[in-house]
Amino acid sequence: xxxxxxxxxxxxxxxxxxxxxxxxxxxxxxxxxxxxxxxxxxxxxxxxxxxxxxxxxxxxxxxxxxxxxxxxxxxxxxxxxxxxxxxxxxxxxxxxxxxxxxxxxxxxxxxxxxxxxxxxxxxxxxxxxxxxxxxxxxxxxxxxxxxxxxxxxxxxxxxxxxxxxxxxxxxxxxxxxxxxxxxxxxxxxxxxxxxxxxxxxxxxxxxxxxxxxxxxxxxxxxxxxxxxxxxxxxxxxxxxxxxxxxxxxxxxxxxxxxxxxxxxxxxxxxxxxxxxxxxxxxxxxxxxxxxxxxxxxxxxxxxxxxxxxxxxxxxxxxxxxxxxxxxxxxxxxxxxxxxxxxxxxxxxxxxxxxxxxxxxxxxxxxxxxxxxxxxxxxxxxxxxxxxxxxxxxxxxxxxxxxxxxxxxxxxxxxxxxxxxxxxxxxxxxxxxxxxxxxxxxxxxxxxxxxxxxxxxxxxxxxxxxxxxxxxxxxxxxxxxx
Length: 481
Known about the structure:
The protein is an alpha/beta fold. It has helices at residues 2-11, 21-24, 34-43, 53-63, 68-76, 116-121, 165-172, 177-187, 198-205, 209-212, 228-234, 249-252, 283-296, 342-345, 373-384, 388-396, 405-422, 434-459; strands at 16-19, 81-92, 97-101, 112-114, 129-140, 149-157, 217-222, 239-247, 254-255, 260-261, 269-280, 298-301, 304-307, 311-317, 350-353, 368-371, 397-399, 470-472. Residues 476-481 have low confidence and may be disordered. It comes from Dysgonomonas termitidis.
């Protein structure tokens, strides 16, 4: 890893970071996502990699306190409090106010609000949902019949980096494909040397596919301890992780009582972790809405047309045999009953075989230079809306006329995501290495979609088991069966 780490440092001098676990011990006792930790490390480290621990502890105590009562106490004493924090915005229609909650500071929605002038100033950012940002708060004491309340007085979105995709793609040219796979793994904070082979590596980075492609819907079933929750809960502020519990139409799509869209409106990716413990409040309603959304990115609730580009990821545990294979070849029996309908599952684009991944052990923790997580998450976010990759895929992918349209769309979407991840520097047919493209993008996409088809066939004979002929133009037929 040292040689690759040094190459990363040289290729990305402004956005590389040294993953020294001694440095990260400064965050012990604080539950912060990786993109925040990396931002703070870079803010308080010198060119020799020496961290000013006292300065970072001081910053944490002042701007990211871990004592709920501390923030309220400072506000009550009329101090203007500045925080780097996650917060939740919710519009209160009855009261005509935009409410603010800061869970990590013990501030509830009923205790804080955002004034209209600040909403107008940041109308594209201060919308309902969870946010990360640098904010300033003040306390307004009770006056007459008005109760005391906390007011948001200043807001700056947490975006430390202005992403230049051309810079990123130019840097990519300095690495071979095998090296670049390791760069991606290290950016996810994992040691590439902890993986046994390229198959494991490619299976692991497939978890990034929904981060870079709009409305790419995937399923991963894996044994416990393969790092599912960590990847989806720490890499990006643009993702929302649901870990079990009740899930409602109002929370995800549209709240009729509040007349507000749900969390999927404002995020790149929603992940359902521990899918076996997910419970729909109204199963029949949720199944109908999910079918519509997974198919076309839209759903209708009463007279409201919900539209979103949010990708969806289902993650669950799967029992394995002693030789590390699923105990049942009907994989979807591991899903809760609400998700076991073939018509619903067929709308997912691909499947990740999580049993091929290694368990997370001490040797999997990265030590060395890699891309800053906050920068990497912004790159993933920016790649979602880069149209040139889908143009390229449409130009080079051939399929027989009788191909199932849902299969073709699924394969193209997965291939586009792989192209963004592995070959972001290639946007024209002339520059495309068809052999590499076939090996790293098309074949894996066909296999992932093929598993969905095979499993749907095991549930319902009406679904065909085999994939159609999908190949690279003028490259030759791929054996899909």
